[in-house]
DNA sequence: AAAAAAT
């Protein structure tokens, strides 16, 4: 079976060939012919099975007839996360290079202006996360009654994220004469109900992930003390021990704060790391992901935003800094490695309080996970003797290392609870404690800082932008200058606070949060 | 004990 057997148009086929593909994956072979005939599809497939192309390619072929009208997109693809949406857009660009298609990506965290323009121009392909899509609609910028093809991707994940009511609302806005392509990795009852309501005589295409995948991942549990500094030390030792084999790695944490803390800590220890979680500025998220994909970053510290769906080929290692609370997340996380038949390694750092979660994971995967270096009964209680302190300046104090870590834990966290996220944990504070590092790393950190600065200023610009373009549309008759002034004031407050001058305390400055 | 998503 080759792609040319599936009934795709010559334009699509040539783009597929140029991308270097000749053989469709099972989900592609199963779904594409039916999708081309206009049938509804129920695709049960995980990521890494070629699912995205299984709807992108037939959609491109079908879009060759007809043209989009202003504010009336012809197709709509719903994705649970911003990164996934962006990834689907890349697919449309890659395989649609022989088409003249208007593609619009509607996701949160970025300005409305550009999205509005694309809608106005008429979008053939609209890719969106539910929140921003509904936002556009409520502002009257978007009519959904011209949608011919609707794709709901990663439905089970949308369920986990509480998007189902939004999805139902959106489905009801689209004429029932549409074609619906529906994808989910699992079929819990709520999802089945949804398919019964919104799919018409769907063709069911089910693909199990290649059995080799599970067995090609070497899984280990690693015992650790439970204090954050214990876990960080365990992780660092593990990373060093794996260094020779390790090409790149994703390090998963359960919480966003932990992602930030661990990221900063790894930078201090000269690891070439980036961070990714949902509270980060959207630009920074995209940038981190791109850098990791391009091999400019070797380690990516991430929340579960990166656990599913993201197409990051060739990850050699997955580290679970925390044992995931939900067993399925473990499967998704370690599934980031050992893809496409390659081998991968996963290490899960476990503390005494994690045993019940480990039990649940082992029950789910139907296997015991081996301990890397002895199980938890061999963990020594860890109050005093840590490694040598690594302070950049000042006399090394007794238990300096621990002190520094306490700071992470005891000082920053409470502040974050009370302060706005953007004010929490200014990078300056972390950088103050930088040990004297190798040149490359210092330069790297400088670059990062510069980028944060850029992100920050872009944000303020974008805010001002939005005020300018949106206010008149709301029918607000006040002169534009008035609406801009408060924004400008705020900006001045941030940059050069009256009364503090150059001595403004770091915590009062607004910085891009990582 | 979490994360994600509209502001």
Automatic annotation (TrEMBL):
Name of protein: DEAD-box ATP-dependent RNA helicase RhpA
Bias type Basic and acidic residues, positions: 401-414, 445-493
Which keywords describe this protein according to UniProt?
Answer: ATP-binding, Cytoplasm, Helicase, Hydrolase, Nucleotide-binding
SMART domains xrefs: DEXDc, HELICc
| Single GO MF annotation | ATP binding
Q: Which organism is it from?
A: Mesorhizobium waimense
Q: What is the lineage of its organism?
A: Bacteria, Pseudomonadati, Pseudomonadota, Alphaproteobacteria, Hyphomicrobiales
Give the EC number(s) listed in the UniProt record: 3.6.4.13
Q: Where is the Helicase ATP-binding domain?
A: 32-205
- What biological processes does GO assign it? response to temperature stimulus; ribosome assembly
What spans are recorded as compositionally biased (Basic residues)? 391-400
